[in-house]
Amino acid sequence: EKGGYDHFMLKEIYEQPNAIVDTYRGRMLVDKGIIRMAGVDDNIEKFTNAKRIIIVACGTSWHAGLVAEYIFEDIARIPVEVEYASEFRYRNPIINKNDVVIAISQSGETADTMAAIKLAKEKGAFVFGVCNVVGSSISRETHAGAYTHAGPEIGVASTKAFTTQITVLSLIALKLAKAKGEINNADFHYHLQELDLIPGKIKKALEANDHIKEVAKKYMNAANFLYLGRGFNFPVALEGALKLKEISYIHAEGYPAAEMKHGPIALIDEKMPVVVIATKKGHYEKVVSNIQEIKSREGRIIGIVTEGDEDVRSMANYVIEVPDTIEAFTPLLTTIPLQLLSYHIAVMLNKNVDQPRNLAKSVTVE
Ligand code: M6R
Question: With the C-alpha atoms ordered 281, 286, 287, 291, is the resulting torsion angle positive or negative?
Fold first, then answer.
């Protein structure tokens, strides 16, 4: 049942190229330049009239929501707020007419997310679900939705659910951008073509597995890890840190790279591995100068870089390459090495990768 893999987590990491194809199959028609999603099409005015989108979720799904915030704002120019469902539900949140709430949940059973949905509905919001498990409670409680179609995710650490959630949310953002006239046809087409290339590029990123094992071996005994990223890749830094924490029990923190100087830089010494997402996009130069600051304090640098990168390679202890893509889709690639890194460290430390202590696959209590 693990398909020849040692753990479900590894199997699910390797399933991502196919899972993403399953997510966009029948929805994204690249040649025709169309995205069809019944749940969105049937409610298109609610989305295009939305003054704001509020995303509610927990854990990794919340991180997918943060990536979506960058994508929606960049491509569709709709303001987005991303809330922990557990905070939202107890805060007497302000929900205005025309707000659209998107709830993201792999299991579709998370108690806090469910409560947030009920509250949003009571306040009159239109609630859209992004779930993986078909027929789950959340998929039934929401007004409309889109499944991720990632297939069953058994490992407690979420992997393919995350990348397929980002895929669904990217499709929605592109669809809304088109409907609102925020993107021209050529650019829209270009995005579809690039998204279509992502599964192949993930396969390429997975080829770094043996090299990532070496990195894991080198740093498996560290007591702490720092993960840094900016822009679209800031949430990926948070996700990388969560993956490491939950399966290896090593303390890890994710930070926006530029926030380092406001505190966490004090932690850096020769014992601190710092994973820096530094793809050749957006804030590359700024991230490179953050890397210099880490290096001058003797921090150990693991750079997640675009293929062919030279600058980070000259400074880092290790670099792990991912293929190039448009900035909005880089999280789909940069996440891959972080999943593998945490997986190998947990295996080397003899931890129970698929069933980490104290954790359950679906958190049905608050
Ligand atoms: O099923 P959900 O997506 O609602 O679950 C949310 C979180 O409990 C979940 O993502 C959790 O953080 C994972 N263990 C992360 O790997």
Answer: positive
